Amino acid sequence: MSFPAERPRRLRRSERLRALVRETRVSPEQLVYPLFVVPGQGVRREIPSLPGCFHLSPDQAAREAREVESLGIAGVILFGLPEAKDALGTQGYADTGVVQQAIRAIRAECRELLVISDVCLCEYTSHGHCGLVEDGEVKNDPSLELLASMALSHVRAGAHAVAPSDMMDGRVGRIRSALDGAGHNDVAILSYAAKYASAFYGPFREAADSAPAFGDRRGYQMDPANVREALREVRLDVEEGADIVMVKPALPYLDVIRAVRESVDRPIAAYNVSGEYAMVKAAAQRGWIDEPRIVAETLTAIRRAGADIILTYHAKDFARTNA
Questions:
Q1: How buried is residue 294: exposed, middle or buried, by Cβ count under 10 Å (0-12/13-18/19+)?
Q2: Contact in structure between 70 and 51 (CB atoms under 8 Å)
Q3: Which of 22, 94, 175, 203 has the smallest set of CB atoms within 10 Å of its CB?
Q4: In tens digits, what is the pLDDT along the chain, a chain of 323 residues?
């Protein structure tokens, strides 16, 4: 035959046909929406570098969570800005801490929504690092006890899952031991297993007031050039008891997501981080892009690479557009 027998365009002729044969799908029930919680009551203050996202007091976080649940989004992940910071990050594991308050408020309002808490010291320490600092160095092993205490306090408040994001060695195993020892063996750990020292975190660090006061985090977060190291980190977290492993950021590390997908049998999450979100919003505000299509294409790419779960600031916009 002078013309190929196969005509792939046959299956592209209408939206119904395209949808029928679509290989990768994104739905709100695969998304997790980040919330930034601050002290007070009635606080709802837009974050300049994250348009459409807000600093929320616990009562307003519960109100926001009700909307998130109504949109069919799977869950929220909570980040806290404490009333005061100190070298030990004590507000992070205080039962009266702002995240603990928000967890209780959300659980009282939402029946089905999953409540996940970020477990890290950076938002609560005066130095802004993710672990204890001694003589200008972030100490690994002493930090584990505080991270385990934070995870326990979140679970006592009602968190369905905890998400350690600090990148200290051994923290998943220590948290798993602490949870199991306190009778919380049914609480899941979503581990930031491959978290890179990325330039895409800028807007988050403004939103969470968590930029380090000195140095940087390259001594414990991963080198962006490494993939084999990511697989080793993931393997170690799985061995320590992680139920879900995460790659962060998402878009610059789609190859890492794919490599992790091919190496482990755990659910995989990916964090579509603040810098990725802010770039889309900035371009959309200038009329340079079709925002809903860009968002759908972005989330589809992350799913296509192998992520089962996506943490994204686009979750509400996507859910509204794709209801």
A1: middle
A2: no
A3: 22
A4: 667 788 899 999 999 999 999 999 999 999 999 999 999 999 999 999 999 999 999 999 999 999 999 999 999 999 999 988 888 888 889 999 999 999 999 999 999 999 999 999 988 888 878 888 888 888 899 999 999 999 999 999 999 999 999 999 999 999 999 999 999 999 999 999 999 999 999 898 887 777 777 767 788 889 999 999 999 999 999 999 999 999 999 999 999 999 999 999 999 999 999 999 999 999 999 999 999 999 999 999 999 999 999 999 999 999 999 87
Residue for token pair 């910071």: 85
Domain locations in the chain as residue ranges: 25-321
- Smallest CA-to-CA distance from 281 within 246, 312, 322 is with 312
φ, ψ of residue 186 in degrees (nearest 5): -95, 0
Measuring CA to CA, which residue among 276, 239, 246, 243 is closest to residue 260?
246
**CATH number given to 25-321:** 3.20.20.70
Helices (H), 241-313: 254-261, 274-285, 291-305
Which H or E element spans position 236?
Answer: helix 228-240
| CA–CA gap between residue 241 and residue 239 (Å, rounded) | 6
Active site positions, annotated: 195, 248
